[in-house]
């Protein structure tokens, strides 16, 4: 919490594909706007990550995975973050460091813009969850990244059952989703400060997110400052 609401608040949402992040982000943003807050949504992959076009094209050509977003009626088979090898780990370390520099600029710019709440759809945590924390070198790398990246006021990790998540967003093999889910939980334990929301119904998750946000973030202070212009 920051003294006298001198700057906007900064919230991030993370989780495996199909965890329901988009739904809960929309719910929180709507609630904040109803309260008269000025809200800015930043999509990590679209607005922050660097060299995204090269990353997509290279990954597709090398690993022959499908492009796009999977839906229940049109499942796809992606091959990018689910490919884990030492050469790819080295590439990820380089790319994620570039993303850290980018996210530092994006957060600073957003917080200085007069916006009351900045909500990140995914954050650097979603990239770090693609690494293997069992490796000592990776743990050193993650500690370095955490010293460089701005820490959100609240970081949500939406936990989810991999089977249900894949039914909503069929893009990656179920085995990988199980592994990826555990990576998120391991990362949360390793770095601390992440609020894990257990798998529940959409409405129960919504209530849990809003109740936690109301406890941790000052929704109602300084009415004139919070009025939408």
CATH superfamily: P-loop containing nucleotide triphosphate hydrolases
For the record, the CATH architecture stands as 3-Layer(aba) Sandwich
Q: Could you tell me the strand content as a percent range?
A: 5-15%
Instruction: Give the strand order, joined by hyphens, for the main sheet.
Output: 2-3-1-4-5
**Count of helical stretches:** 10
Low confidence ranges: 1-5, 221-229
The overall number of domains is 1
CATH class, please?
Alpha Beta
Largest β-sheet summary: 5 strands, parallel
Task: Please provide a written account of the structure.
By secondary structure, this protein is α/β, with parallel strands linked by helices. It has one domain: P-loop containing nucleotide triphosphate hydrolases (Rossmann fold, 3-Layer(aba) Sandwich). The protein is 52% helix and 10% strand. It has helices spanning 21-34, 44-48, 52-63, 86-111, 124-128, 136-148, 162-168, 174-191, 202-216, 223-226, and strands at residues 9-14, 39-43, 117-121, 154-158, 195-197. α1 (21-34) packs across α9 and α7 packs across α8 (174-191). It is globular, with a radius of gyration of 18 Å. It starts with 8 loop residues before the first strand and ends with a helix.
């Amino acid at each position: 919490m920051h003294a006298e609401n001198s700057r906007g608040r900064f919230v991030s949402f993370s989780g495996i594909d199909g965890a329901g992040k988009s739904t809960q982000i929309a719910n929180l943003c709507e609630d904040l706007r109803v309260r008269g807050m000025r809200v800015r949504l930043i999509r990590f992959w679209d607005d922050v990550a660097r060299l995204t076009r090269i990353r997509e094209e290279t990954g597709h050509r090398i690993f022959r995975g499908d492009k796009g977003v999977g839906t229940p009626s049109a499942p796809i088979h992606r091959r990018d973050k689910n490919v884990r090898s030492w050469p790819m780990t080295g590439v990820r370390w380089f790319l994620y460091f570039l993303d850290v520099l980018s996210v530092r600029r994006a957060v600073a710019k957003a917080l200085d813009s007069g916006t009351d709440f900045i909500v990140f759809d995914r954050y650097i945590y979603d990239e770090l969850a693609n690494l293997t924390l069992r490796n000592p070198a990776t743990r050193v790398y993650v500690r370095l990244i955490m010293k460089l990246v701005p820490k959100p006021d609240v970081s949500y990790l939406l936990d989810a059952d991999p089977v249900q998540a894949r039914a909503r967003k069929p893009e990656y093999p179920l085995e990988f989703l199980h592994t990826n889910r555990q990576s998120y939980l391991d990362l949360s334990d390793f770095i601390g400060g992440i609020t894990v929301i257990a798998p529940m119904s959409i409405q129960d998750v919504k209530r849990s997110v809003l109740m936690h946000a109301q406890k941790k973030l000052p929704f109602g202070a300084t009415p004139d400052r919070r009025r939408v212009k």
